[in-house]
């Protein structure tokens, strides 16, 4: 069996997300991806409320929230556990997220980015880490996604730019 090459380093600012990335990388154990069965949520309890587990379906490509962390639900003011990405209340967020998650599925590479977005009249700045998982070692069938809110502006939004 040939060992998988380590993924290209990615820029991550938040220390908790950096720690989760190192955890995911260690769980690969020489493979391209870890499987969901390799991931033990209590091993990253420091971030658990900010984690999403996303089931990936094909033909057509779609995403289903198996888990939407409690801190995310509290801060976003909605819970998407058990729902599809297509049910997210913000079309702009939904479309951007679908593109970014599709890239992770297509390339099999983890990604991280910092974003600004309007949710419920509040401007949020957040960093999101997306990590692919695979049951068979080849096809990405789940994403482990973690988010850290860097800033929440609760003042009423003037106008979206």
CATH architecture: 2-Layer Sandwich
Q: Output the number of helix runs.
A: 3
Largest sheet, strands/sense/barrel: 5 strands, antiparallel
Order of helices and strands: HEEHHEEE
Please tell me the overall pLDDT.
87
| Distance separating the two termini | 52 Å
Tell me the number of strands.
5
Radius of gyration: 16 Å
Structural domain tally: 1
The CATH topology is given as: Beta-Lactamase
Strand order of the largest sheet: 2-1-5-4-3
Describe the structure.
This protein is an alpha+beta fold and 161 residues long. The chain has a single domain, classed as PAS domain (Beta-Lactamase). It is built from 3 helices and 5 strands, in the order H-E-E-H-H-E-E-E. The chain has a 5-stranded antiparallel sheet with strand order 2-1-5-4-3. The longest helix is centred in the middle third of the chain and has 17 residues. The N and C termini lie far apart (52 Å). The C terminus is likely disordered.
């Amino acid at each position: 069996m040939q060992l998988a090459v380590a993924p290209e380093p990615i820029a991550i600012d938040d220390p908790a997300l950096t720690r989760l990335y190192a955890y995911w990388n260690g769980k690969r154990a020489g493979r391209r991806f870890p499987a969901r069965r390799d991931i033990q949520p209590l091993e990253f309890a420091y971030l658990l409320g900010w984690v999403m587990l996303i089931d990936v379906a094909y033909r057509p490509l779609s995403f289903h929230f198996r888990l939407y962390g409690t801190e995310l639900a509290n801060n976003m003011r909605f819970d998407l556990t058990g729902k599809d990405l297509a049910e997210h209340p913000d079309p702009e967020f939904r479309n951007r997220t679908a593109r970014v998650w599709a890239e992770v599925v297509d390339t099999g590479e983890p990604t991280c980015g910092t974003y600004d977005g309007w949710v419920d009249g509040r401007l949020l700045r957040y960093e999101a880490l997306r990590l692919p998982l695979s049951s068979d070692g080849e096809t990405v069938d789940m994403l482990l996604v973690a988010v850290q809110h860097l800033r929440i502006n609760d003042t009423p939004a003037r106008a979206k730019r």
